[in-house]
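Regression report. Comparing outputs from two consecutive submissions.

Submission 1:
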Amino acid sequence: MRTRPYSEVDVFSEEAYRGNALAVVHDADGLSAEEMQRFAAWTNLSETTFLLPPSSPGADYRVRIFTGREELPFAGHPTLGSARAWLEAGGRPRANGTVLQECAAGLIPVRVEGDSLAFEAPPFTRYGPVDEPLLRRVAEVLGIRREEILDASWLVNGPQWIGVRLASAREVLNLQPDPGKAGELEIGVVGPYDDAGEADVEVRAFVGGDPVWEDPVTGSLNAGLGQWLTDTAVAAPPYTASQGSVLDRHGRVRITRREGKIWVGGTVTSCIEGTVRL
């Protein structure tokens, strides 16, 4: 064991402690995957990241991302949170205004604009219709009739998201899903607001088999939803997604388009700085 710098940051909320927390272990050289996984499970947060020297030319750092049960090739709020923690610890990007993160999914650009950061949505590794038997099972997990699902698509960009579109934000907020029926499914649900408020859509994310069953605010899911809703002409960037409302969070995810690419952004606040023995 040795003492390593440690941070916790709050991602996707302008109000500190109302977004999605992320634990970040700096200088993680020498830790095995088993040690990383054990610590990630111990933090009891949706994700924990470990920062390492880059192995790809041009990258500013390399990150490994763990939930309480597995390593992910990519995840959204850990990307923004890791970039903020790296910058707060004295990191200086090679390219002015853009951090280039290396992860198992490849190189992810992160734009820095004050307290706000945004990552370029990675490409899908699976994108397309969900077969009818699985869609009926998804409806059962969500506790709704199959007919209430207007559309659905695989949105796999690291996590194995199944995107589900409902008719309204109110329907999304009223969901009472059953985690006992979810198995290993990862389900993201979206519905529009009718009024012109601060958010255009409401999003909820459910991760079967994970200790954190409902994720407070989810970057990878919103990246997939942003591409899907744009491709199907349901929504056009820029728009703002609200997430975490039923968990007393105030998540706000900003979806924009730049040079044909979807970008996912939000405010990131440093909350805890210290050391950890690992």
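Submission 2:
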Amino acid sequence: MSFDHKWNRLRESNPEHSANYAQRWRKLVDAGHDIGGEARFVNAMAPRRARILDAGCGTGRVGGLLIEAGHTVYGVDLDEFLISVAEEDFPSGQWHTGDLADFDFAAAGITDIDVAVCAGNVLAFLDPSSRRQTLANIKSTLKSGGRFVAGFGAGRGYDFADFSADVRSTGMLVDLQLSSWELHPFEPDSDFLVLIAERI
């Protein structure tokens, strides 16, 4: 089944969208901005030398830092251009082009994952009809006790309560909700959500 993901619509309307996106992150790094908050968060919650899935990995900016921290990282993204950037910048990662909703993780050897991370507003770009299928597919990669962590902003078309319900619908247990990757507590009026769930 082919889903109507917002990211694909953006690429269709602007063929330079992916290249511009990749360049924006390069410029932030060159300007000295800290783009490692998500990776530090995941590194803190993962065992050493963990198996980590970067779901919607883009250019590998999160996964690449986790590789440098000593983890084995598998990245999946539907944008082949961004995957080519990840392969160039972080060649020791295992990067795959595919739709998170129906990607065959088992065939790619992406199993027994300690932590699956979905950062950078990836979830807000999903076709709403694919959300629960995507979350269930990501869950399938996790070992028992493995954890899923995702973060995205408010006002992007995916209500936080709906997202939490979708995560619970997969059978995962929601452990914690925060309002930032810097561990600020989540409040009803928070404009960002970081959610941690566990495969039980």
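Expected: both submissions complete independently.
Actual: both completed, but the second showed a warning that disappeared on reload.
Relevant detail on submission 2: Strands lie at 51-55, 72-77, 94-97, 113-118, 142-153, 173-178, 192-198.
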